[in-house]
UniProtKB/TrEMBL annotation, chains A, B, C:
Gene3D superfamilies: 3.30.70.120. Pfam families: DUF190. The lineage of its organism: Bacteria, Pseudomonadati, Pseudomonadota, Gammaproteobacteria, Thiohalobacterales. SUPFAM superfamilies: GlnB-like. This is DUF190 domain-containing protein. Belongs to the UPF0166 family. It comes from the Bacteria.
Length: 101, 101, 101
């Protein structure tokens, strides 16, 4: 397999349908990243310290949500520049990784 | 965006409500980490080799659970020292990452 | 705690029961990795660009699935050699990490 150096990204939000759907659509339609996966957490808290937790199965609007994607370091840098005004500070984490293809 | 070097942590447990809730509460109340997200896996196994799997929707107590958090390397080192006696060996994984804020 | 250098692996698939169950079984029975966790995403897309999304709770067959595991760099290299023909190109991501035990 060929190995390509990438930057791996995790963006932390809560499960506000519209906002996260907008970000995924943008990564898909405009930024054209290689792939995106969205995960819903079962509980968590952010810098505000306020706990988000699933107490009722049908009340998932306030749960943590992670939008995960990866692409070349240059492309991720460009995407993060575009996202800067849309994501709260401290909610984007990146690290170097390798994709095997 | 400003970039801060952090240590990213994933702690692997099974879905024993009390034990993981205790850990999240501790990270929140005492260690005051920047944020924690808890994810439930749909199946998995640990060093024991015993499979954990969701066969019944309402029987989720034995599913894998990951508690994810990040903070400065010094703070994470201190937290891991505190957790040493509470988490089974081989169930904590860390790597260096960058938070954008 | 003792620290051991590992390679952390995430394999991206969709929720085709048989295929992912086969991979987990193989990692368990044959490769004997230290542990595997499977997570189901709530939406996502891969290199094909086609969106996978949960619209109906009971129609989860097409959702993204991540199979996560870690082991020593040598062992992971050997496992990835074995998986080469089973996983679509660009669907395996790895990075160096540390396990605490």
């Amino acid at each position: 397999m060929k190995q390509i150096e990438i930057t791996f990204v995790r963006v932390y939000m809560t499960d506000d349908e519209e906002r996260h759907a907008h970000l995924v659509k943008r990564l898909h339609d405009e930024e054209k990243v290689r792939g995106v996966t969205v995960f819903r957490g079962v509980s968590g808290f952010g810098p505000s310290g306020r706990m988000h937790e699933a107490r009722l199965v049908d009340l998932a609007l306030d749960l943590p949500l992670v939008i995960e994607f990866f692409d070349t370091p240059e492309k991720v840098r460009r995407i993060l520049d575009h996202l800067e005004d849309q994501i709260a500070p401290g909610h984007i984490v990146t690290w170097p990784a390798t994709v095997h293809e």
